[in-house]
Design a protein that fits this description.
Radius of gyration: 24 Å
CATH topology of the largest domain: Glutamine Phosphoribosylpyrophosphate, subunit 1, domain 1
Mean pLDDT: 93
Shape: globular
Oligomer: single chain
Strand order of the largest sheet: 2-3-1-9-8-10
Structural class: alpha+beta
Number of domains: 4
CATH class of the largest domain: Alpha Beta
CATH architecture of the largest domain: 4-Layer Sandwich
């Protein structure tokens, strides 16, 4: 796990790329790689590559930027290639000579064999850049699921890239300003959907995409993988066949992610996903698994500490716990906002930050996490609710548009009077009235619905965006489904949407940024692309059986983890932000949100936000899903745009 950055002055019209510039860029992401650093400059000073290394594999070797044998190809690489030994055997058989044991070198030799098609043979998490001096071409790629980030901008005839936005911002002339379209979508999805970022002019390479830039300034992007790809698992088999196949794939994925020359462990919540990680890892290890759990002072009974301790005892782990309170959150906020780069609308970044610190302080720089399981196996209650609603909503959706719009106009005032619980149903009627799909994702964690934005945003800002709707993001994914997988059922479509929006742009970026803040590498075995292809191909009855969510995973873990863990309802990674905002952090949260520099930008109706804040702090309503995204946004704007301390 590392940090990468670089510049390709393809136009040759701006100043030469300097060692000082590349050093400043790499220093900004030194936390991603405290063990080593490296720099490459081409002879003509048109290309510069920077690197910071967190040594995990081949501690003595693996220095980057790394060249091929004749130094015509150079790579900077962030991530892990779990099938690199298999690739190495194949490449050595073809005559390629290795100098290290590092997985980075396999990418170089594979590129020599296959060019940009090399990405299709890689199994793992990665973001890398390859400078090919013979072709005078820079080649960038990001892994299929989007586990590793890669940002870029094009400025004055140069392409500038980095593992984090803060590295890109070091390039002269890259401005710090808000992208208004990205802001609009952030208010819905609590993250910025790719390829946008909240910084105007800075983009992120989408998961499963590669990009090439040549000396003529030709920029090409190509999607090399998507979750619409069909699995090779045969259909029509008995349930036991799929259960056994899942056990095999998950065991293999966890085993592959134990590849390390340094200690590794597990973030243990006590839920089914992380408990399964511990159980399967324990079968493969001679010593105890290192486990890490977080709780909250004064809220120990509401957390999952008891379940985590049960798993720790059951599997005799080397268990570590940290208990945090509101003061810890406030202390960490400046660092969290710095490391996030973009605001995150989920408060789980706080416990993740402290779990990563606990792991690093305990001498464990590699951890496995359970992210992705709920998305690919339908673990959220919202999946069940959406399936129930969809069958009834379709009848309404079949009515003529004029009738649907009339129904929306008539029911909106009534639903408004019925309180916050009913605002989602108002949104569902609105979607039907305007010809939008009902389902925008299976997790259901949205901040502001489209109708609410009419109250949240000022008329001037809303007017500047024209007929903007966040369905623009969802609609593009539905078109992709209709083109390539019209056979997808309701749950498969929900899973696809969560893979494209929620996982890549929210959860995985939260994982990457908070763990790398402490130089810890996070691995996510449930998001091995082979496992994802298998899971999304499964029929709905294997994911949702009656009222039971994640049915197939519960079956596959029989005899692996304790029965009470298998059968318990999902709790979620709970954080007492609602309570802290009503109590100890009330004044700070209110001042941060209402006195933000965003107020002067004319984006928001502050009276509406103030009303929400009063309703929440008084206990009249729970607006936590709206207030935390606004709180994070205000802190982000203060730090990154205004340049003020938090």
């Amino acid at each position: 796990m590392c940090g990468i950055c670089g510049v390709f002055n393809f136009a040759g019209t701006s100043s030469e790329v300097s060692a000082g510039l590349i050093k400043r860029m790499s220093d900004e992401i030194a936390h991603r790689g405290p063990d080593d650093e490296g720099l490459y400059l081409s002879a003509d000073r048109r290309v510069g590559l920077g690197f910071r290394r967190l040594s995990i594999i081949d501690l003595a070797g693996g220095h980057q930027p790394m060249p091929n044998e004749d130094e015509t190809i150079w790579i900077v690489f962030n991530g892990e290639i779990y099938n690199h030994e298999e690739l190495r055997r194949s490449l050595e058989a073809k005559g390629h000579v290795y100098k290290t044991r590092c997985d980075t070198e396999s990418i170089i030799h594979l590129y020599e064999e296959k060019g940009v098609e090399c990405v299709k043979d890689l199994r793992g998490m990665f973001a890398f850049a390859i400078w090919d001096s013979n072709r005078r071409r820079l080649f960038l790629a990001r892994d299929r699921i989007g586990i590793k980030p890669l940002y870029y901008t094009i400025k004055n005839g140069s392409l500038v890239f980095g593992s984090e936005i803060k590295a890109v911002l070091q390039y002269p002339g890259v401005e710090r300003d808000v992208d208004p379209v990205a802001l609009y979508h952030y208010l819905t999805f609590i993250s910025t959907p790719a390829p946008m970022t909240l910084f105007k002019g800075i983009r992120k390479l989408e998961p499963g995409f590669l990009m090439t830039v040549d000396e003529g300034g030709n920029v090409k992007q190509e999607q090399y993988w998507d979750a619409t790809i069909a699995s090779d698992v045969p259909t029509g088999q008995p349930d036991g066949f799929y259960v056994e196949r899942l056990r095999e794939l998950l065991s293999e994925s966890i085993r592959l992610r134990m590849m390390s020359d340094v200690p590794f462990g597990v973030f243990l919540s006590g839920g089914l996903d992380s408990s399964t990680n511990v159980a399967l890892m324990a079968r493969l290890m001679e010593g105890p698994v290192s486990t890490f759990t977080v709780g909250y002072k004064g809220y120990e009974e509401q957390s999952e500490l008891g379940y985590a301790r049960q798993i720790a005892r059951e599997f005799n782990t080397s268990h570590h716990e940290i208990i945090i309170d509101h003061r810890d959150m406030l202390d960490a906020l400046p660092k969290i906002i710095h490391h996030q780069d973009e605001p995150s609308g989920e408060s789980v970044c706080v416990p993740n930050y402290y779990l990563a610190k606990l792991a690093r302080d305990s001498g464990v720089p590699v951890i496995q996490m359970g992210e992705g399981s709920d998305e690919i196996f339908c673990g959220y209650e919202h999946y069940r609710n959406m399936l129930y609603l969809y069958n009834r909503w379709r009848r309404f959706d079949m009515l003529p548009g004029a009738i649907k719009k009339g129904a929306y106009s008539l029911t909106s005032p009534v639903l408004d009077l019925m309180g916050t619980r009913w605002k989602r149903y108002k949104e569902y009627v609105r979607r039907a009235a305007y010809g939008e799909e009902l389902m925008w994702g299976g997790a259901g964690n949205f901040a502001f619905y489209e109708a609410e934005k009419g109250s949240l945003l000022t008329g001037d800002f809303r007017g500047s965006l024209g007929r903007m709707t966040s369905y623009n993001v969802i609609g593009s994914h539905y078109r992709k489904i209709e083109q390539e997988r019209p056979d997808f059922d309701v749950l498969q479509r929900l899973t696809y949407l969560d893979l494209k929006v929620r996982l890549a742009d929210l959860m995985l970026m939260r994982v990457d940024k908070m763990t790398m803040a402490h130089s810890v590498e996070a691995r996510v075995p449930y998001l091995d692309h082979k496992l994802v292809e298998f899971a999304i191909s499964l029929p709905s009855h294997l994911k949702l059986r009656g009222t039971q969510l994640k049915y197939i995973l519960r079956q596959a873990t029989q005899g692996v983890v304790p029965e009470n863990i298998i059968q318990r309802e999902k709790m979620g990674f709970w954080v007492p932000i609602k309570e802290w905002f009503m109590g100890e952090c009330r004044e700070y949260a209110t001042a941060t949100i209402l006195d933000s520099g965003l107020k002067e930008r004319g984006f928001f109706n502050t009276d509406f936000i103030e009303s929400m804040m009063k309703d929440h702090t008084s206990g009249r309503a729970d607006h936590m899903y709206q207030l935390w995204p606004l709180f994070n946004l205000a802190l982000w704007h203060r730090y990154w745009i205004e340049g003020r301390d938090i």
